[in-house]
Design brief:
4 strands; 82 residues; four-stranded mixed sheet; alpha+beta; 23% helix; 1 helix
Amino acid sequence: MIFSTLPDLPGRTYDVIGVVVSQTWLNPRGKDDELHEMFNHILRQASDMGADAIIDIKMTAPSGTDRPDPAIVVIGTAVKLR
């Protein structure tokens, strides 16, 4: 599976299959494990869709919450290479 933050795969053609997304409340003590699980979650989603790659991956921390541990969202576009 190819992971890319680029909005395109230069030199490759593909069909867009769908959007993959994962969200969690980040616990500072388990931050690395939670981030790893988030990427595993979008990987499983893309694999279930039959994708070969996830492009345009973005990670955001939505604002407007009074929780001490931030919400983290990972989103990307699942694609099938031609």
